[in-house]
Amino acid sequence: MPLTILIAEDDEGTRLSLCDYLELEGYSVLMASHGEMALQQVFTHQPQLIITDVGMPGLDGYTLVQKVRQLPAFRLLPVIFLTAHNQTQDRIRGYQMGGDLYLPKPFELTEIGAIVRNLLERSQLIQSAWIQQVALSTAQQRAMQTEDSSAEVAPWSPTPSELMADFTAREQDVLALLSDGLSNSQIGDRLFLSPRTVEKYVSSLLRKTETSNRSELLRFAISHHLVP
Predict the structure, then answer these.
(1) CA-closest candidate to residue 166, choices 226, 227, 216
(2) What does pTM read for this prediction?
(3) Where are the alpha helices (DSSP H) in 98-156?
(4) CA gap 219, 215 in Å, rounded
(5) DSSP state of 168
């Protein structure tokens, strides 16, 4: 089945041109002329990516994405913001609301097509890795439960809250964003930190969890229920 993209745009010309182009690229496209309709489309059809204009009447693009991001099922949903305003503060707000990319108008359809492909490929890879890790973690837990059932006293293991107590608040923020598949630069944009500072927090997390790379760190976090 083709991947589904939701376009939330109040300008009919922009909305239709995006729809026509993306359908020719092989995607299934949903359209919404305002934020409330787009939010309902997200709940009903669960698209794989959202392209939304920032300045829509009623529920604007920022608020739409903020509401979508509050739902755990859509935390990794890629989002592209479209806007005629390209000031630094506007872009910062877009990233704070959970956008993956902020694209000023006017834009080239070929450029947005390349961005869509890149975001969807990354999202699919992250989703596949997540599913595999959850399946592995579930199998390991079942095996441990089977072993524990034959023992008189179950071995002690730290609870998630005990593990998290060893992390600073900023380390917890970085770990949560790492679980969303963000790069150091993207994490820095969200937390207003430099990529080098983010790397220091990552190094500290690796040391505290006795892991050697980000993949091991994420497996550790998932298996110990440190991230949802």
Answers:
(1) 226
(2) 0.56
(3) 109-149
(4) 6
(5) -
Mean pLDDT score across all residues of the chain: 83
Number of Cβ within a 10 Å radius of residue 27: 20
Q: How far apart are CA 116 and CA 102, in angstroms?
A: 12
Does 167 score more than 50 pLDDT?
Answer: yes
Beta bridge partners, 50, equal 6, 79
Q: CA of 215: how far to CAs of 18, 118, 130, 209, 212, in Å?
A: 36, 20, 11, 12, 8
Closest-CA residue to 222 (of 102, 157, 136): 136
Separation between Cα atoms, residue 193 and residue 175, nearest integer Å: 14
Per cent of the chain over pLDDT 90 is: 29
- Amino acid residing at 171: E
pLDDT digit string, tens, across residues 74-87: 888 899 999 887 77
Residue 178: Cβ-neighbour burial (10 angstroms; 0-12, 13-18, 19+): buried
Contact 81/35 with Cβ under 8 angstroms?
no
